[in-house]
Structure formats: structure tokens, C-alpha cells
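Example 4.3 (complexes with small molecules)
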Amino acid sequence: FSDQLAAFLATNKQELAAYQAYKGFGFVTVMSVLVAAGAYLLEHRREQVTEILHSIRTDALTGLPVGAVAEEVIERQLERDAPFSVLLLDVRQLARINDALGRSVCDTVIQRVAQRIRDNAGPADVVARLEGDKFIIVFPPGAGEERARGIGARICSAFSEPITVDDTEVNLDLWLAMAIAPRDGHTAAVVLDSCERALQRAKTADQVCTVFSGPGDSETRTVLKLEADLRRAIREQQFGIVLQPQIDLHTFRVVGAEALVRWHEPHRGIVSPAEFIPVAESLGLVGDITNQVLEKAVEQWSAWSRRDPEPIRLGINLSGVDLNSKRIISSVAAALNRHRMPGHYLTLEITETWLAQNPEIALSIVERLRALGAQIAVDDFGTGYSSLSQLTHFPVNCIKIDRSFVTAAHDVPEKVAVLDAIKRLADALGTKTLAEGVETVDELILLNRLGFDEVQGFLFGKPLSPPEFEARYVGKRVIQEFEPIRKQLHASAYRQMGG
Ligand code: C2E
Ligand code: CA
Ligand code: CA
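Answer. The structure with calcium ion bound is encoded below.
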């Protein structure tokens, strides 16, 4: 139509070209104005929408994103391959503060709490406020357990400073729980649920500043339960000992007893040291257990020695944690004194692993224990990867060869070679040898042939309660139940000699 209009108005070709140029210019101008107006309206609308969205997605009190945002971030990150961690934080005292100091103080406290958490998280970590007292941090893809624990620890230490509101100081503690996605869930809901369950465990245990983790992480639960029970067990002295006989291969007499701790737990029954000693070590509780074992065992020894003119030696296991503290020296000295036990009847078993890893402390500790008269045995020898020459530096009295070298040794030439080498080394050092975990006569025959001095193991006897041990072995020169073993040993020696 505009072309027709231009043709109608134009009187010649030049005029027509001019009209068409004006027309094009006019068209562009009008369209530009229309597009600009449209864009302006759209932008305005978008801002309004963003504002509305922002107010829905941001917590009014703290300015942090709300939980739904964290959930979206988790969902989005789950689509990528890299695992990531999520940390849930719950402020223990907030409910009480609300009751005691009122809503407005509590609101200020929550703002400060939010600020502290935000300040201590990384810039790429999404910190959001869930309902009530809870906050959540979603770490970026690739940031695993270590990161969550590290940030958790940093936030906790930030909370060691109280928060001051209107001259009132409030001290806050955090419960912390963690989940790893996708290990603990393939959807945001499951990941968050997993965090919640870990948080419940933190609350049940009332353990602040410890990051609880994962769903079905029954190990964490057991360890926690174990921790609480262990502390009670120490208070209530629930630890007892059993004793395992050590037999001299030349005389077939019981020359020693190793005291092994047993925990008489009221609900579980007897708990094995393999289960609780590592936990006690990690909690710094093992020293208290050692003291109870030492006291019980030395007291028992003292009672027996009054009736037996040739008392047996008593072995006690020391943990590496015991040896890292000076307390062990005074504990041993006190026990010996209290029960008038000459030091040389007490053998302290120290693992080869610990000796090898702590050569400097080991030397001074060993010397100080020796100064009390006590004997030192290297426990679990062969498993500690010490260089054999290292051993020459320690003034030890006995090498206890680990059971792993003894079991079925007669069938395994490599084991025979190792046992032989250890025996030669011990001879060169003038140190006695004891083989642990002897279960069969065949093993015993081999050990006897290699010249081992003493043995300990189920073949001769399992660990027994003190009354049972006393009934069987104390004050007895010949143990009837050992006689069949002695006969088999002699018969084999006779055969070997070509008899
Ligand atoms: P360990 O010092 O090497 O103690 C020997 C372990 O082997 C004992 O297990 C004993 O019952 C077991 N055993 C002895 N003879 C045989 C055998 O012929 N065959 C087999 N299969 N096993 C045998 P237990 O009493 O369960 O102790 C395990 C470990 O717990 C001990 O190993 C020691 O490392 C630690 N432990 C035990 N009592 C104490 C203690 O009072 N303090 C510390 N710190 N650790 C202890
Ligand atoms: Ca031992
Ligand atoms: Ca051992």
C-alpha cells in the first residue's frame, strides 16, 4: 500500500526514489520506538518478578537464601558427576534463648549466627537458613567429606566466642551433621533426610562440635554408644582381666601369665579389647583402662606370690597412647610399690609398631621403665616393619613373635625362614623369644626345633579368669594336662634324631 501511495504522489522517478527513502527511514524510526517501549516494559516487569522471587527465596531475618534454594542447588549438582558434601548445623541453645530473653533478642542472635556461619564458609559454598534454628551449607561439586569437616570445625571454633546482644553474652554450641551426595541420596530430599538423621544422632548423643555423618552409618552410632558406655565403665570400674599361661619349653612349666583386659558390659556381656581399645585410645581414655588392668593384675600377682615361693612373671599390655604420656611411669611405680612387687616380675608388652614409629621417645621410656626394674617385651614382633638393626638400640628382654608367623608355620617354608632369622637375631642380642598363638603340636614341634624359649597359645591354654588360672596353674610344678603334649614333642624329637 505504501508503495502504491508513493507511486501515486510521485510525478517523476527522482521524486519516487526520495519518497521511498523517507518511507524506509520513517519505518525504521517507528519500529525502533516500538521495540524500545516494549523492551522497557519487559525489563520493568522482569525486575518486578525478580523482586518477588527474591523475597520468596531469601530469609527476611538473615538475608540468607531459604532452604528451597539449597534444595535446588543440591538437585542441580546431583546432575553432575562429582560428589559433594552437605553440612547441616543446628544451634543448641536457640529455643532456650527465645524463652529466656524474648523474641527480639533471639532474632538478633539468629542474625549474628547466620553472619558467623556465612563468614566462615567459602565464597562458593551455598549457605541457607532452614526453618527455625537450622542452617545448611551445600558445598560445590568435588568438595567432599574433608571440606565439610574442615568448615564445620572452623565454624565451631568461631562459636567459642560468645555473642553479645544488649550487654547480654550468650554462649552457643552447634550440633553438626553431614551427608555426602550421591552416596547418601540420589535426590535432594533423601540427602537432606540423611543429614537430618545424622543430626538426630548428634542430638541424642548430645555431642556438640562433632560432625555426624551418613545414613545407616551404624558404625558411627556404635562408636558413639561405645564412647558413652566406656566413660561409664571407667567410672564404675567394669574392667577385669583374664590371664593366659606362658610355658617354658625346656621345663614345661608355667613361667608367666599375660593379663588381657575384658570389659564386663552389663548389657553386651564380655566385650573384647579389639573392639574397645582403639576407641578408648582415640578418646584418650586408654590410660584409665591401663591403670585398672595394672592395679587388678598386680594385686592378683601379689596375693599369689605370698603362697608360691617361685612366683610367675606377669605381662601387661601397654598402648602406644600410654607410652606417649609420662603418667605410665608413675602408674607402674605406684602399682609396684603398693603391692610390694619386685619390678623384674612385671613384663610390659610394647608393640613393635610403636617402637619402630617412635624410636626417640621409645628409648627414653623403655629406659625409665627398666629403671623401675620392669622387663620389656616387644609384642607382635614381625608386624611392625622395624628394621631389625633398630631393635639393637632398645634394651628389651623378650621378643614375642606374632601369631601370624606361627600359624601353620611347619607348612610354609617362608615362615620357617623368618622364625629362624628372628631366633638368630634374638640370640645375638641375648634376648629371650616367645612364640604367640601356638595352636597345634606341629607348630610346637617346629618352634622347639628352632630353639624358641617360651610359647603361649590355645594349645596350652586360653586366657582364664584369675580364680580359674589359680586353680589350674598357680603353685603347680607339673601340669597334668600338658603331659600328652610333652610326650608328642619328645616322640617327634626322638624320630628326628633317627630313633
Ligand atoms: P595381644 O597382646 O597380641 O594378645 C594376644 C591375643 O591373642 C589375645 O586376644 C589372646 O586371647 C589371643 N590368643 C592367644 N593365644 C591364641 C591362640 O592360640 N590362637 C588365637 N587365635 N588367639 C590367641 P585378646 O585378649 O582378644 O586381645 C587382643 C588384643 O587386645 C591383644 O593382642 C592386645 O593388643 C589388646 N589388649 C588386650 N588386653 C589389653 C590391655 O590390657 N591393654 C591394652 N592396651 N591392650 C590390650
Ligand atoms: Ca600382648
Ligand atoms: Ca601379641
